[in-house]
Amino acid sequence: MKNLIILSTICFLFLNCSVNEKPQFIGLENIKISESTSKYITVTAEARFINPNDIGGELQTDEIKVFINNNEMATVSAENFEVPAKNEFSIPLKTKVPTDSIFSDKNLSGLLGSLFSKKVKVQYKGEIKYKVLGFSHYYNVDETEDVKIKF
Questions:
Q1: How many other CB atoms are there within 10 angstroms of residue 49's CB atom?
Q2: Residue of 36 and 43 predicted with greater confidence
Q3: Which residues are in the Late embryogenesis abundant protein LEA-2 subgroup domain (predicted)?
Q4: Which of 40, 74, 114, 137 would bridge with 96, disulfide CB 3.0–4.6 Å?
Q5: Under a CB-based contact definition with an 8 Å cutoff, are residues 116 and 47 in contact?
Q6: How confident is the model at residue 126 (pLDDT cuts 50, 70, 90)?
Q7: How far is CA 84 from CA 55, 79, 95, 106, 142, in A?
Q8: Looking at the domain that runs over 20-148, which CATH code has it been given?
Q9: Does residue 78 carry a pLDDT above 70?
Q10: Any idea where the domains of the chain sit in the sequence?
Q11: Cα–Cα distance measured from residue 60 to residue 75, given in angstroms and rounded to the nearest whole number
Q12: CB contact burial 102-122 (16+ within 10 A = b; e otherwise)
């Protein structure tokens, strides 16, 4: 009898938690160069989502590449992010780009244009993976923004 009560309680809780739809990807915001040193330039952004579900989940951001002036410079590396239930949230996307790759020969023409305009074109491109209860969904990310640089 005790096992039946426990089993029915678990089934009741599981059936009342709804996963109506996947979280909605709003887009990338606040793309900027947050720090620059002689060795690295730190590029940051926020991926914004709304989760209407009673259950959270997990987001993985390992497949996002960062392009500066149309040249692939780095990959976003972040820990898995726990998705809150019934909430709007953002995931920080941060990467460090080595300055020697920015000043390489393949990027020289884009760099000269950036020096005159004081802007670089930063593009995030790839996928964010959402996992919940054994199911997964992918969000395509392809956002480009001109970012001011300071000398």
A1: 23
A2: 43
A3: 51-143
A4: 40
A5: no
A6: very high
A7: 8, 15, 24, 42, 24
A8: 2.60.40.10
A9: yes
A10: 20-148
A11: 13
A12: beeeebeebeeebeeeeebbb
